[in-house]
Each structure stands twice: as structure tokens, then as C-alpha cells.
Specification:
The chain has helices at about 10-20, 35-45, 60-75, 90-95, 115-125, 135-140, 145, 150-160, 165-175, 180-190, 200-210, and strands at about 1-5, 25-30, 50, 80-85, 105, 130. The protein is α/β, with parallel strands linked by helices. The chain starts with a strand and ends with a helix. One of its GO terms (molecular function) is DNA binding. Keywords: DNA-binding, Phosphoprotein, Transcription, Transcription regulation.
Length: about 210
């Protein structure tokens, strides 16, 4: 997999580059500014863009805005955001871009297993969707009226749905039956006025559809 990495912190950039090499991926460009990121993608279309959110010059949301620009210019370009923060202004827009295909958003301090992280990158590069549950939780907080209809258990199920978990996986994590999970999911879709979904990816897209205000 050919990856373009955008990270302004040199030590973090070198560490991620080494990690990607460890898993057999090629870092075709390693840059520290959004302008360099855009130029690198235009020069060499990668299999995946891995970018931080806060980059020079203002260290606010430059990385996210560059990712959105690239997704608009190159439809289908897989983008994975790895950040210390959830930038609420553009996060939902990024996750919804391109129908939610080939996009990921994880928090750096939530990466506890490098193999799972590598698998998440490969999933996004293949057109899948990966969303850190803490990101979902913060974005859902922006729309409290509909979310307030959910019970605490339904919120737990919704967060795991956003991670792409199957009913069986959710049941194992929450120590309930699959039938109970199915009941919670039906209630979630009804309360949030979302259509039923047939597989894990469409379930994630349903969450993203809710985030954009459906």
C-alpha cells in the first residue's frame, strides 16, 4: 500500500513511517504542512492519505480541511485522520464525504494495538469506514435532542455500530444476547428515524447520515 503521511511533529512522523514500513507499506511522501500534502497527492496519487488534524500555520483544522479538499478533487481517495482531538467543525463533513467510503478518524491516544491500527488503515484503503467511538460520542453530543431519546444501553450499541461491529461482536462486548442487540438496533433506527441496514458498513453509514442531520 502506498501512503502519503501528513504530520507536523517530526518524531511522530518518523515513528508512524517506521510503523508503516514494518507492515510492508510504502510511504511515498512524508510532509508537515497541508500545502505539501495537497501537492504530494496531486503529484502521486496514493492508496491512502494519513493525516493529522492540527497543522501549520494556525494549528487548528488545516489537516481536515486539506483532506476535504482532496476528497473533493479526487473522489474515492481513502483518507485516514489520526489526531489528538476531535475537530467538530469538519469531522462530520469528512466522515460523510463520498458516502462515507474510504474514510477513517481515530484518536492518537486511543491506539492501543499497532496490529489493529494497521488493519484499520488497510480497511479504509479498501473503501471501508473506521470511526473511533470517542469521535462518534463527541459528534453525537452536538445533536442532543434526538440522541436524548436513546437509553444508555442503546448509546453503547450505537457507538459499537459506528466501529463496524457485528451483532455478535456487540453482544460479546456488552455481555448480552444477539437477540437483545437486534432489539436495541431496531429501537435506535426507529428513534433516530434511520432506515434499516443489512451489513456492518451500511450501519456505519447510517450513523454518519444521522450526524449530517437526517
Amino acid at each position: 500500500m502506498r501512503v502519503i503521511l501528513a504530520e507536523d511533529e517530526v518524531l511522530m512522523r518518523e515513528g508512524i513511517t517506521a510503523l508503516l514500513h514494518r507492515f510492508g507499506h510504502e510511504v511515498t511522501a512524508s510532509v508537515g504542512t497541508p500545502g505539501e500534502l495537497i501537492a504530494a497527492v496531486r503529484a502521486t496519487r496514493p492508496d491512502l492519505v494519513l493525516t493529522d488534524v492540527r497543522m501549520p500555520p494556525s494549528f487548528t483544522d488545516e489537516g481536515l480541511r486539506a483532506a476535504l479538499e482532496l476528497r473533493g478533487e479526487f473522489p474515492g481517495l481513502p483518507v485516514f485522520v489520526l489526531s489528538l482531538y476531535v475537530e467538530q467543525t469538519y469531522a462530520a463533513e469528512l466522515l460523510d464525504s463520498g458516502g462515507g467510503d474510504g474514510v477513517g478518524y481515530m484518536l492518537k491516544d486511543r491506539v492501543g494495538d499497532v496490529h489493529e491500527f494497521a488493519e484499520a488503515l488497510e480497511r479504509v484503503a479498501g473503501g471501508g469506514t473506521v470511526v473511533d467511538p470517542h469521535v462518534v460520542r463527541q459528534l453525537l453530543a452536538l445533536r442532543r435532542d434526538p440522541v436524548s431519546r436513546l437509553t444508555p444501553r442503546e448509546r453503547e450499541v450505537l457507538e459499537r455500530m459506528a466501529e463496524g461491529r457485528s451483532n455478535a461482536a456487540i453482544a460479546r462486548e456488552l455481555f448480552v444476547t444477539e437477540a437483545a442487540v437486534g432489539k436495541h438496533i431496531r429501537a435506535i433506527f426507529a428513534k433516530l428515524e434511520l432506515g434499516m441496514a443489512e451489513n456492518d458498513h451500511r450501519r456505519v453509514l447510517a450513523v454518519l447520515a444521522y450526524l449530517r442531520g437526517r
